[in-house]
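Entry for the shared binder. Reason: the reviewer on the internal report wants the predicted structure included alongside the sequence.
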Amino acid sequence: MNVKETLTDDAGMRRMVTRIATEIVDANGGTDDLVLLGMRTRGEFLAKRIHEAIEKIEGADVPLGAIDVTLYRDDFNTRLKQPEVSVTDITFDISEKNVVLIDDVLFTGRTARSALCAVMDYGRPGSVRLCVFVDRGHRELPIAPNFVGKLVRTSANEEVRVRVKEHDGEDAIYLVDTTPTT
């Protein structure tokens, strides 16, 4: 990984989780009818952290689930040569609930669109909001997040990599140069 810049360290990630959790509760007017769905893989871990922060701040245990959007992607047959399909874990009714989809990075908007399609297979929510830790621009679809940890404008040869301890062994957000080296 050719790191250009460390955008956030572990302390910054903790602050981001607390701020986003507070924003979600404020926007929902409390925790009634609130549901959190983390998008596999890293969004699932970030959703769990937001869930824990809401529990600590509000004393409320809001429903928490995980959603896999692999089979809903519009590039499933073309781009994904060996797709890794995970299990969706929604053990509660989402009908008429205020669902917050949580992911690590928003880029083209295609993963978020896939998540919206997947959510509709589990019920008809009262509302769906999108939470991302990093919005890096370059949208191909008219999708905008409701909750953003960090806005980072990137060039075509840059990526944002969110790393979480549970999956990557560290908490950090990096700006990475993807220019091929010769």
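Summary line for the report: Residues 3-177 form a domain with the Rossmann fold fold (CATH 3.40.50.2020).
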